[in-house]
Model the fold of this input.
Amino acid sequence: MIKKPSILLIFALCRLAVFSQQAKENFALIQPGDSEAEIIRKAANVTPSERQLRWQQLELTAFFHFGINTFTDKEWGDGKEDPAIFLPTALDAQQWVLTAKNAGIKQVIITAKHHDGFCLWPTATTHHSVASSPWMKGKGDVVKEVADACRAYGIGFGIYLSPWDRNASVYGTDAYNDFFVAQLTELLTRYGRVDEVWFDGANGEGPNGKKQVYDFERWYKLIRNLQPAATIAIMGPDIRWVGTESGYGRETEWSVIPADNLDPAAIASGSQQDITFKPEGDMTSDDLGSREKILKAKALVWYPAETDVSIRPGWFYHAKEDDKVKTPGKLMDIYFSSVGRNGVLLLNIPPDKRGVIHENDIANLIEWKKEREKIFSVNLAHKAFTNLHKRDRFLFDKNYDTYWISRKKDTTATILFNLKKKKTFDVLLLQENIQVGQRIERFVLEYKNGNQWIEAASGTTVGYKRLIRFQPVTAKKVRLRILSSRLNPTLSEFGLYKQ
Ligand code: FUL
Ligand code: CA
Done:
């Protein structure tokens, strides 16, 4: 007679299956005796968690900074504002989300509460909210309007909830952590799926101001529990601030960087992606993840860069900045320097006092989108003959999941592209498959002129996406030389374009 397997045995088998699937992790511990080669091998095998991968592939996301500051014409409110001044005359969150969508943006984040403490949703935690305003006779909910519009248009939805709160009377006491948890709980349970939670590190209290110890760990656990797919950004475990608010990321941008506070005991309880702490260490210098840095590390994490910038000088809308909206050319430059440097762009588009996005912003966004489409619609290398045999078609199939990978022992590679005829191009696109790991350390693009190979462009890291602009080149034979890589490199896509 066949004995029924015990529940315990089934449970044990299930766990085994889960663990074997999780061979890929978004962290690695470095042991004291690890050789240089072993550390490099570990770094090359760190990969994004599912939520980090989804977020990276969005490429373009938007912020909507809107709130009491929109009506006081300020950037930072002091929390003493009268909710009676919050009175948008024609608020239309569908217009906001559609504006973003028409610009090619895939996810938006609403400032549910900025530093002034004014809540854009009718919270039970404070009277300092839209419920106390004349807008819709106190029956309105901006967060809901945005969430509903996102769902209607198939756009990701995220919330910004400022830890620093200049209105809450409990700020500076233990009770504030309960207050914050109550606010988060409302936001994470009332509006359906939340894709990103953005915690700002800003605090202007100064040396004599209120001191608040944030119970981040409790907040992270709550988010993982209520919205497991949401990435937690900036003061959080999943996404790192690139380090400036200019829109320009690093030339060399590693998504795998040291995290010296990664605790082996915490890791034993699960993978880093579900461990609820923010990696610590140097996050703003020029070099975060070079060999020199990782060789000194105690642990490594996948902690990718988000590049936030406003389409206007300020984060909130000011009529006096209507003629200072970033031009399509400037937005393009930012695109190449954020998305094109292994980052995700978080572009702020602040709605005005009417509660709509101003026509100047819309015009520039649409033009920017058109110009992007013009550049990237035709890959001039498409179906070029290469020296890669069968795997070459993966480079041009517009499918990120299919990729070329060099032989296991190769940490350099030369890929020859024989274009069908002479073409003129001035933009290079490279994408590594980060589901395998970020590996490429140095590359050069060359073209053949007579008998000579001449450099057109060169760079260091690639990561999820690398874009480089260069002087126009006309050639039939082109080659990409990967000069250095951590283990064998991959390429999901290769592109040559003309601006
Ligand atoms: C900063 C804040 O102080 C600004 O007001 C804005 O929200 C920006 C995105 O982050 O830290
Ligand atoms: Ca591909």
Summary: The pocket of calcium ion (ligand 2) is lined by residues 394, 397, 399, 402-403, 492-493 (CB under 6 Å).
